[in-house]
Amino acid sequence: MSRNGPTETIAIATGGGDAPGLNAVIKAVTLGARRRGWRVLGLKDAFNGILNPDDYPDGGSIELDENTVRYIGHQGGTIIGTTNRGNPTAYPVQADDGSWSTVDRTDELIDRLQALGVDALISVGGDGSLEIAHHIHQRSLETGRGLRVIGVPKTIDNDLDQTTSTFGFDTAVSFATEAIDRLFSTAASHGRVMVVEVMGRYAGWIALHCGVATGAHGILIPEIPYRLERVADMIRQRRAAGRDYAIVVVAEGAAPVDGEITVASRSLGRAERLGGVGEKVANELERLTEMESRSVVLGHLLRGGTPTSTDRLLGLRFGGAAIRALEQGYDGVMVALAPPTVRYVSLIEATRALKTVPVFGDTVLTARDLGVCFGD
Fold this sequence. Notes:
Radius of gyration: 22 Å
Number of strands: 15
Number of domains: 2
Distance between the termini: 44 Å
CATH architecture of the largest domain: 3-Layer(aba) Sandwich
Structural class: alpha/beta
Largest sheet: 7 strands, mixed
Number of helices: 12
Strand order of the largest sheet: 3-2-1-6-7-14-15
């Protein structure tokens, strides 16, 4: 996982969905690199800028220096853009007859980076982006090109197995908690069941944490297949006790027993887009309980806004660790939080498995002690 060789120019790319804390990573990478005398290029919209430079007025990359990143640490989003389309290992192309297929443009990507003088790539992203980074690293080794690759984990879903936490998660949970707190008063005032759908893809971390923090009455997560009859029973029991409202938090990847995850759309060259389970749950609970039920989808609101201090600090730590990894000769690794420090794990190890909620973990057990219904 280490390879000697001088570093003079590094490139940084942010891929996949945006997450609060990305700009903190960019800031730490830039300042850390500049202190070592290295040049830093920010790649526009992950790798789309490099693969399609004619589509960008600046040629698809921008020079990053102390002035560029001075005031960005507290900002949401990413100043170099991101995308969850344009995977260079399976790039979508349209034929003359209108049909679509994919091609591997990895060699082209590496050639274009090296034409810019790039010695090392820092790729910031979730499991999909890190798998791409691993492929780029492997291809660089196979062809002897010498492009070094460091991964930085990024996902609000907190579902990367080899790191204790990822930046963006704390901000997402904090916002969801505030939103659900607000919904309690309207649910109680109108005597309604409020179903709140949150992001998380195939892991229930966001739903579990904001649901327990707010005192939600039901929490549905992918790790525990649910039966809505059980949730309806809980709501009926509340109503019989004079509490004629309920809050149910649903992770977008939650599914019923013997059922399937609700998929909003699928398209070539990108991961399937989940969504719609909140409305399904609300409609079915209204039928089962005969109580008015409404669904609220927090969606991309969880990704935006100012990062919490926790996510700013974690982004800065990851960015600094990525620069130290290059300085120490590492290659093909991801930086990972292992309190009280940051360690390095191979990219293949980092992308081997998703980190899902342990169903017998302390947080789930605490929720059950509080009377939360998981629908099981």
